[in-house]
Amino acid sequence: MSDQYAYLRGAFVPLEHATINVRTHAFLYGTAVFEGIKAYWLPERQQMGVFRLADHYRRLLQSCQILRLRSPYELPALQELTCELIRRNQCQSATYLRPIIYKADLRIGPILNPEGTEDDFCLFSLPMDGYLNTSGIHVGTSAWRRLDDNAIPARAKVNGAYVNTALAKTDGALCGFDDVVVLTNEGHVAEGSAMNLFLVRDQKLITSAVTDNILEGITRATIMTLANQELGLTVVCRPIDRTELYVADEAFFVGTATEVAPITQFDHRPVGHGTVGSVTTQLLELYSKAVHGLLPQYADWVTAV
Ligand code: PMP
Q: Relative to the CA of 56, which ligand 1 atom is closest?
């Protein structure tokens, strides 16, 4: 038995015992919402720090609100349970945390009725170092379209919606791409398979508008702040055409797990000179410092454990 714990049905249990019934509503219908949170070892403080912990749980509660799920815990308790898991699992290096609020009801039928149902919270952790290639990835445009706000809202991080991500990412991999960009039904660039996108054009940072079926990413918000405050760059949120990918000077994906992933090719066309650009490199370095608690002006982004 491993010495790792997870949290389920109101208790910390050995990871092997963190299992659910096959009749669970969330398993049958994908009716769950989740977060991907990352904690890092803080070299100066010699302890773990969780990056933008409260912001992740605020978004989780918003996802619950959209799905009419009831969180068994409020914000402070969710944060404390997360810190407690890090302590129990004795994490001492980069760690990914996956909280889920799911419909635990065992009755058959897809209705989302909070009355008399038992929505549950679970949480597990796993070690996670670098995710993508920081020397530049080749991204293809997926033939799969992003789900619409009026179908399964991208603003909510809904487990079932990740079928869309899985189709796009898998078919992209089979075509030889490291990752994909997905378009909205109107044909604008939404985001990557599970990350937000930034382009650099004429020293301006451009990212898709929140009304273009994206997850309102926490890394996206972080990068917008760092670009504006630390590099003095203008950040524009607006619809992005597919062909803007082909004429961008630089491009990169951002996300909690992805961190900052430079893109050096779109659909077999080099981005800029086909190498990692200077704005991307600067933001990658700033982001790495921020998550490791090395930017004192953003100390409140990091919750020390
Ligand atoms: N878009 C999607 C679809 C995602 O799954 C993620 C990862 N959570 C992101 C964007 C990036 O969001 P964040 O920076 O909050 O991790």
A: 15
